[in-house]
Design brief:
Order of helices and strands: HHEEEHHHHHHHH
Shape: elongated
Distance between the termini: 71 Å
Largest sheet: 3 strands, antiparallel
Number of helices: 10
Number of domains: 2
Strand order of the largest sheet: 1-2-3
Number of strands: 3
């Protein structure tokens, strides 16, 4: 027989995975409620913020299970969000057992963030595409792609340490700008267009979209906090670029 503590841990793990992967607050709370009721709890309460998860589950025997989980680090992983969402729906429909869902959730937690090489390749391609969109030529796009990939290597390395995202963004933007300015002294490229493309890989587009979605859903606390975080990253990127341009005398 499955112990209630195991079911509580299952619900908590699903919510934690969604939060650490950048899911919207309504999705986290909806998943907790869906899985909690499917697990047999008569009353399920969940409250999520970008940095914390609170759940209260009422068992049929009258016992109440309350858990709090602090979310210290997060990243964007839409694939994991989609998988957790599918698992929760399959569990609520009865097509997956508790053990099967737990195994899959543990696998997703072990996988963590996307592989660095994959991020760098995709980021380099994105930097190249943005440079072309901004009016650069193919060669400038190629340079922006290489610099963008290098910047992601730097940011990924900084993320291993307790470095705030704002400082990561400012450092990455300054590094990209300095590198492109140096290349422009040797090769015939437009440093402005190339820099724009290279720093776009650090812009928090997903975080800003999620913040807007939370605000539209009435989740003012998480929406405002995520908006502030995204805007601070935008400002940090602009500051890093401007600082290097100023020091470079341009």
């Amino acid at each position: 027989m499955i112990h209630m503590e195991q079911l509580v841990g299952l619900v908590l793990l699903a919510g934690e995975l969604l939060l650490t992967c950048g899911a919207e607050m309504y999705r986290v709370e909806e998943t907790i409620e869906r899985m909690g009721r499917a697990a047999g709890f008569v009353q399920v309460e969940g409250f999520a913020t970008p940095t914390g998860l609170f759940i209260s589950l009422h068992a049929p025997n009258g016992r109440v299970y309350t858990r709090v989980r602090r979310i210290r680090r997060s990243h964007n992983n839409l694939s994991t969000i989609a998988e957790v969402n599918s698992l929760s729906r399959a569990f609520s429909e009865g097509t997956l057992t508790v053990d099967e869902v737990r195994v899959e959730l543990e696998r997703l937690r072990q996988e963590g963030a996307p592989e660095s090489l994959t991020r760098q390749l995709i980021g380099g391609g994105g930097a190249m595409a943005f440079t072309l969109i901004f009016g650069g030529n193919w060669f400038e796009g190629f340079i922006a792609g290489i610099v963008g990939a290098i910047v992601l290597v730097l940011v990924t390395w900084l993320d291993r340490y307790p470095v705030p995202k704002v400082l990561q963004a400012a450092t990455g933007a300054a590094f990209a700008t300095a590198l492109i300015m140096g290349i422009s002294n040797v090769l015939p490229i437009h440093p402005d267009l190339t820099t724009l493309g290279a720093v776009m890989v650090m812009t928090p587009g997903v975080a800003m979209t999620t913040a807007i979605r939370d605000l539209l859903s009435g989740e003012l606390l998480s929406g405002l906090s995520r908006s502030a975080e995204a805007l601070s990253v935008f400002v940090a990127i602009a500051t890093g670029v401007a600082m290097v341009i100023r020091l470079g005398g341009r």
